[in-house]
């Protein structure tokens, strides 16, 4: 008795299917990573017992890191370029408000320099961010 046997084919990998899967995964990771917001800098706001809740303005947010780095609306900025950027913002919107988020370890000298730059630019309102003395987190 003679059994019929098929010739065995070597297994093949279908490259087109693998490329399709990789493209779908790539698109998935690109779309999901755009929704993850990373803060520009981690700071610890100083505590205040008499701080008041104010309505957030759509102004300029200046963040001061503990190491002295500055971020204007989450973009790094040099201290010497700050004055010009504040003047430009004031020229675009006369009611510009500067919102200052400074780490509790930031030096007073740096804060005074920023207040001086804002005054020279004509910005009269500077809101500062603090955290409540009885709260654990920042605002």
Would you mind describing this structure in some detail?
With 139 residues, the protein is of the alpha/beta class. It has a domain at 47-132: Nucleotidyltransferase, domain 5 (2-Layer Sandwich), CATH 3.30.420.270. It has three helices and seven strands, in the order αββββαβαββ. The chain has a five-stranded mixed sheet. Strand 3 (70-72) and strand 4 (75-77) form a beta hairpin. Helix 2 runs parallel beside helix 3. The mean pLDDT is 80.
Please give a quick description of this structure.
The protein is of the alpha/beta class and 139 residues long. The chain is 34% helix and 18% strand.
CATH topology of one domain: Nucleotidyltransferase, domain 5
In helices, the fraction of residues equals 25-40%
Order of helices and strands: HEEEEHEHEE
- Give the strand content: 15-25%
Oligomer: single chain
Uncertain regions spanning at least 5 consecutive residues: none
Radius of gyration, whole Å: 28 Å
The residue-averaged pLDDT reads 80
> What is the terminal-to-terminal distance?
87 Å
How is the main sheet built? 5 strands, mixed
What is the helix tally? 3
Shape: elongated
By DSSP, the count of extended strands is 7
Strand order of the largest sheet: 4-3-2-5-6
Backbone structural class: alpha/beta
